Amino acid sequence: MADVARRAGVSSQTVSRVSNGHPGVVEATRQQVLAAMKELGYRPNSAARALKRGEFRTIGIILFTLSTTGNVRTLEAIATSAAREGYATTLLPVAVPTQDEVRGAFTRLGELAVDAIIVIMEVHLLDAATVSLPPNVGVVVADSDAGDRYSVVDTDQMGGATEAVRHLLDLGHATVWHVAGPQESYAAQRRTDAWRAELERAGREVPPPLRGDWSAESGYQAGLRLAREPGCTAVFAANDQMALGVLRALHDSGRKVPDQVSVVGFDDIPDAGSFIPPLTTVHQDFAEVGRRCVESALRQIRTEQEEHGTTLVPTRMVVRKSTAPPPAGAG
What we know:
The protein is an alpha/beta fold. Helices cover 42% and strands 17% of the residues. The strands form two sheets. The chain has a six-stranded parallel sheet with strand order 2-1-3-4-5-11, sandwiched between helices. Strand 8, helix 10 and strand 9 (262-267) form a beta-alpha-beta unit. Helix 5 (69-84) crosses helix 11 (286-303) and helix 9 crosses helix 10. The protein is elongated and about 90 Å long.
């Protein structure tokens, strides 16, 4: 830094201000310092600055899988929001969703020097008291029911699923069949619970749910079974990919959508409006979930206090062409 200051003809303090991106430097002086840095091959030592300030300006992210649309879009939103605040992100995927793997991930991120950790983990693991957190590191969880222990940000899973079922019942369908997500998924369980509760509240028959794994293929297999159910006129799939599989299965089985069977998904992925027919679905605001995760992490960093409780991001129905009243005599 002293060499750069001599070459640029400024003080070491000015070099430091330029290195840290401080706005209070005349632009001509800034360019002079940057030119000297480039000429001398000088790069600011971020690790040294972190030790001096007591912060690393890095948020760690623990993620179970990159194979689902929701996780990828939430991750993208977190990284974008963090960058906007001047924070880098370090991603640590967890290969197998076990308590040992989660504990190991926390430990590794603690060693990598992060200021806070955001966990995108839809499986029921963070409720276990055996999961220990690194000291003095704030934790935010997306898609979990661990709000009594951590700061949780999630989509209003139950509200969205309730609205989906209510939409189909209001169209006149006698009941709604359900293609559920994986058993271990918190989000899938919440959507299934809401589906069942809304049917029971309306005094309707509750058909046995069919279990999928979020993939279009699992939706297709469930859709083939539903196509053989003569009384099935409405289907709520727990995500859009499985809804896509259901649409294909109904088409292959000669069941017309929405003339004979209505289908609703959940997520509102970018391609949902291009399905045949365009998919009615529940819109999740992944960008808002990511923004609020980063917001909570930064509050914990700046106040050095833990946060607890759950923040729910509202959903909304997007009605397209895959839903209609049931065929005459079927409602």
